[in-house]
Amino acid sequence: MTTAALGRRVGYSTQQVRDLERLGVIPPAPRGANGYRRYRSEHETALRAYRAMAAAIGPVPARRLLPAVIAGSVEDAAERIDLLHARLAEERSRVREALRALDVAMVEADDVFAEEDAMSIGELAQALGVRPSALRHWEGEGLVHPLRAGASTRTYGAAAITEARIVAALRGGGYRIPAIALLLDQVRGHVGPRAVQDILEERLADLARRSIALLAAAASLHALLVERTEQPCAVVTRDA
C-alpha cells in the first residue's frame, strides 16, 4: 500500500501515518524502486492497534506503548498490557474509596456541630488517615480553612472538617490540587458535596468505558503480536 492508501484504510491522513511511523508506532516501511514507502498488512494492523489503544488509554500513552510492543519481546508486551488493566482497576478502587469517604463527609456535614467537637490538626489527620503536613499543605493551597488560635495552633470546626474530608476523598480518587480547588469552589458556592459525588461517579463511568475500550483494543493487539511472531517486519535501512 502507499501512504495515502494505508491512511484511508484506517482513517488517518498521509501526514499522520508518516508521523506515527517516525514515532515508532508502526514499523519502518521499506521503500519501493521508485523511492516511495510501501506498507504491508502488519502496518495496517499496528495502526489499528494504536487507534484502539488511543481510545482506551489516550493518544500519548498509546504512542509510548506501541513502539515497546513492536520492538520488545512478546512477554514484555503481555506484561505491559496486564499493567494497563491493573492500573484501571487500581484507579477504580481509589475512586470508590473516595466516594465512600465523601459519603461520610456528607452525613457528618448534616450533624449538629458543637464547639467542643472541634478537632486539632493531629486529631483530624488521624481521622482522615493523612499526615498533619498534608493538612498544612491543603491550608496553604486554600483548600481548607481552619480557625487560628495563634501562630501555630489550628482548630478545625464543622466547615473545615467537611473541606478536609472532601479534599482527602478527592486526593484518594486521584485528583490534583488545582482540580480540587475548582470543585471546592463549587461546594462553597452552595452547589454542595453532591456535585463532587456526581463528578466521582462520572469518573467511575469513564473508567468503565475505558475498560471496555481496552478489551476491544486487545483484539488488535493480539493480531499485532501474532503477525510479529509469524511474519516479523524487517527494518530497512535507508539513506537520509
Automatic annotation (TrEMBL):
Residues 1-43, 118-186 form the HTH merR-type domain. It comes from the Bacteria. The keyword DNA-binding applies. The lineage of its organism: Bacteria, Bacillati, Actinomycetota, Actinomycetes, Micrococcales. Gene3D superfamilies: 1.10.1660.10. This is MerR family transcriptional regulator. InterPro entries: DNA-bd_dom_put_sf, MerR-type_HTH_dom, MerR_fam. It comes from Microbacterium algeriense. Keywords: DNA-binding, Repressor, Transcription, Transcription regulation. It holds the Pfam family MerR_1.
